[in-house]
Amino acid sequence: GFSPAGADAGSSGVTLTVTGSNFRQGTQITIEGTPISTSVASETSASATIPDSFLARAGDLRIGVSNPPPGGGSATGGTLSVTSPKPEVTGAVPPKAAVQNASKVIRLIGRGFVGNSSVKANDVSVPSVLESPTALSVTLPASLLSQPGVVSIIVSNPLPGGGTSNPLS
Fold first, then answer.
1. Checking DSSP bridges between strand 2-3 and strand 28-31, what pairing results, if any?
2. Phi first, then psi: what are they for 145, rounded to 5°?
3. In what order do the strands lie in the sheet containing 34-36?
4. How far is it, in rounded angstroms, from Cα 134 to Cα 107?
5. What's the CA gap between 17 and 40, in Å, rounded?
6. Does pTM top 0.70 for this prediction?
7. No. of H helices and E strands in the chain?
8. Mind listing the pLDDT tens digit for each residue in 81-101?
9. 47 bridge partner residues
10. In the chain, what are the helix, strand and coil shares in percent, each to the nearest 5?
11. Exposure of 120 in the CB half-sphere (CA atoms within 13 A)
């Protein structure tokens, strides 16, 4: 077995502990078949910090363990579920934009942003780039900036977990 059984997408520093038998120096925990740096605590326990790249998006990760030769072999430990957090938008930089006939990049500030967060402004999908779990760069198209008014922005994260943020005007 292993713990934790799950993690939030976008998290970092998550330590995975695998329990079993016959662990020895050189035992490697694998994620999606990729060996990661592993510390063996005893014949029945090993741990590793999950690389952030595996936690960037929601989905299931195959966990395994392998022992080196002579003898050795590998075992499948199961699936670690990475779930999207519900995003929250707390602000934008800049908070206002002048009427213009050109697109504008703004930074959304909040929490729970992940690599596959999607953004809508006035119900129109707009391009976004993840900067961190607390910042997204968003390109507002000229069509939303050509007339005075309010633009309502929401961020959505996919299943499993996920959800839609509060609107930001």
1. unpaired
2. -115, 0
3. 6-8, 73-83, 59-67, 28-31, 34-36
4. 10
5. 10
6. yes
7. 1, 17
8. 999 999 999 999 999 999 999
9. 17, 39
10. 5, 50, 45
11. 10
